[in-house]
Design goal:
The protein is an alpha/beta fold. It has one domain: Carbon-nitrogen hydrolase (Nitrilase/N-carbamoyl-D-aminoacid amidohydrolase). 31% of the residues lie in helices and 26% in strands. The protein contains nine helices and 15 strands. Strands 1, 2, 3, 4, 5, 9, 11, 12 and 15 form a nine-stranded mixed sheet that branches. A six-stranded mixed sheet has the order 6-7-8-10-13-14, with helices on one face. Strand 6 and strand 7 form a beta hairpin. Helix 1 runs parallel beside helix 3 and helix 5 crosses helix 8. The chain is globular, with a radius of gyration of 18 Å.
């Protein structure tokens, strides 16, 4: 991409414990809002189509989930907009589920998928299994990577792709806690930390809001789009279902800190070169 090129990104903040039908309606509405803003891509929270409330997720039929994803693909094609959305679903007949993010291009094709690696919470650990590749893809020619929620606590999952060329981190999340833990996390500054200061890449995080059906767990909101310096270009509040948008000066992200780690200390360099080659070789694998 040229030095003056801009990638306009919208980030959707949605409720995490609603029905599949309601999630699809809200997702299509937010695609429309992002298209009206003139954005190139819209990022949705973790498992935004199925939701993340496992007693409900476990009742969903695989065909229902696939139909929901198809509706989003059709909406992306009609809006001529890239869409990154999420589902929790069964693949290859495996007993345990995968927590997936789907990258859909402006023609409505799924061009990349990533499965969450670091499971969070008892339900996810019980019902889901981890993915086995790192994410590397392009949005309109701009190299990107992705992690899902808890993955963001493991910076190697995005710094290694940054060594491979990624310059923006897309981070769908569903940060749910008890209300006491949620307030403590906010007060202690333990909410999602920006990737820019350690990597020199953009960081777009789409989080959820609201409570589960039992009123025991709440999600923290605070979705953001951050510059490689770590400064905010746009932020959402803690409670609203909303869409935020920012224009990314693509020349501002150079991955310098990740690239420096790949060079020194010298004894690690050949290992990093091998890892980067493997990331590139496996980037188009479909999680199964």
């Amino acid at each position: 991409m040229g030095e003056t090129e801009v990638l306009q990104v919208s980030v959707s903040q949605q409720h995490w414990a609603q029905s599949l039908e309601r999630n699809v309606r809200r997702t299509l509405a937010h695609i429309g809002l992002a298209a009206d803003e003139g954005s190139d891509v819209v990022l949705f929270p973790e498992a935004n189509l199925t939701g993340y409330d496992f007693p409900y997720v476990l009742t969903l039929d695989s065909a229902e989930v696939e139909r929901a994803l198809t509706q989003v693909q059709e909406a992306a094609r009609e809006a001529k907009l890239w869409v990154i959305c999420g589902t929790i679903q069964r693949r290859s007949g495996a007993e345990k589920l995968l927590n997936l993010a789907h990258v859909i291009d402006a023609q409505g094709e799924v061009v990349h998928e990533y499965a969450k690696i670091q499971m969070a919470g008892r339900n996810e650990q019980k019902y889901c299994r981890p993915g086995d590749k790192l994410s590397l893809f392009e949005v309109k020619g701009f190299p990107a990577t992705m992690v899902i929620c808890r993955d963001g606590r493991h910076p190697e999952l995005y710094r290694l792709p940054a060594m491979a060329g990624a310059r923006i981190l897309f981070h769908p999340a569903c940060s749910t806690e008890t209300i006491e833990a949620l307030w403590w996390k906010r007060a202690a500054g333990r909410a999602t930390q920006p990737a820019g200061p350690s990597s020199s890449i953009f960081h777009c995080c789409a989080n959820t809001v609201g409570q589960d059906y039992r009123g025991k767990q709440s999600s923290s909101g605070g979705s953001f789009i951050k510059h490689p310096t770590g400064l905010s270009l746009a932020e959402a509040d803690w409670y609203s279902e909303t869409v935020i948008t920012a224009r990314l000066d693509t020349a501002a992200a150079d991955g310098r800190y990740a690239l420096a780690s790949a060079e020194h200390p010298e004894f690690l360099r050949p290992y990093y070169e091998k890892i980067v080659a493997d990331i590139r070789a496996r980037k188009d694998e479909r999680p199964e």
